[in-house]
Amino acid sequence: MYQLGGLVVTLVNGLLGLILWRRLRAAFPRHGAMISALCAAGLLLAALPALLMAAASFSGLRALQRHAPEPLALIAMGMQVGLLLYGLLLGLVTLACAAVRALHRLQPRRNAPIALDAQTTTNTQASGGAEANPAAQDIPAPADIAARPEAVDERRRRLVVGATWALPAAAVAVSMGGVLASRQRPVVVRLALPVRRELTSLHGVTIAQLSDVHVGSFMDAERLDELRDAMNAVRADIHVVTGDLLDHHVSQLELSARLLRGLRPARGQLFFSMGNHEYIAARSADVGTIVKGLEEAGAQVLVDEAREVRIGGDHLWMGAIDYPSRARPGEPARRPTRDGLDRALGQMRDDGAPRVVLSHHPGTFRTARELPFDLMLSGHTHGGQISLGRIGDYALTPMLPAGLYHNGHYEHRGRRLHVNAGAGGWLPVRINCPPELTLVELVPA
Known about the structure:
The chain is α/β, with parallel strands linked by helices. The chain contains 12 helices and 14 strands. It has helices at 2-27, 32-67, 70-106, 118-126, 142-147, 154-182, 221-233, 253-262, 276-282, 287-296, 337-346, 364-368, and strands at 187-195, 206-210, 238-241, 269-272, 300-301, 305-311, 314-320, 355-358, 375-378, 390-391, 394-395, 408-412, 415-419, 436-444. The strands form 3 sheets. It has a 6-stranded mixed β-sheet, covered by helices on one side. Strands 6-7-8-9-13-12 form a 6-stranded mixed β-sheet. A two-stranded antiparallel sheet has the order 10-11. The chain starts with a helix and ends with a strand. The model has no long low-confidence stretch (mean pLDDT 86).
């Protein structure tokens, strides 16, 4: 599947590169050799990730991350996104121009010439022709019109030339800006969770959420130290990690455990819910090895279960469900989503204490939103990594066709969901969607 995807993207890259080359050559005919060289070098750099994936499947892309210098790998991935973004912009501009032309054709032609019928022409000739109508002497013959060169609209030409280089320049600038944004310190998104007024020991208690770190996917030890320091800086009472801490291999467990050991929740509680990439990493070992390594690093890995967290004279409930997916060969069988929810929520007494559920996949909220809990914390989507905003519950991201809950806060009849935008990503590019830490504060209702 990865090889097929790499082949398709490679073909798209070649088509977009050819279109860009032809447009630039036509706009700047005096600099053909330089344009050809720049296009060839840029296309080779942009297409490198897709070429490696087409040649060696997913391991080819991993080889780029492991063996290429990090600046080169980041630039290559950014250029790939920039080329695809150029294709999107070009398509939108083409559609807009086609729509304008269609509107012009539908408008009535107010200044259309009046056609003369044969009888009128005969009468005109009989009454003296050109002498009877002196203005007719000024009307050029069709042959003269065809021979006359068409005037060049310099303003339109400058506009076309400007658009030719401005579109790819904008695409590259935005994508490379997204590369830099993906390496920035995560933003802290604050969320209030109302609790009963009589639970005074819980008022002001905070929960910090980290999600989708993807250790090994452009996430080295230095970057992990930055995430650790950012988590500790918010001074939260409880820390939670909602899956995809590892990326694809058990070898990433060492750095993952190092990050977990460095976290310092004020009340010493660190909870973990399994993501799909923990199971992907387990294919190189087994799930037990992954879970054991996480627990030895100080995490309480909750799989369809809940724990009571006592704070002063009060308490809250913290539960988590397994990643909702069918087990693949070599993986243990997993419960259906509803069964996992029933099992975890069944361990939370209905005693008025707030009930928090960790679920890596936000789609779980569809099943859970009629069940008794107060807040679900999720991740998985990375916020789409490219965000054009949100209309109601619909986030305008590349993830839009894949589900409803993509990024931010959602509510349904008092049940709350927050989807963390993640700290890592599939690609090292984030546009209007910075890395995120979530800080939940319990406040009196």
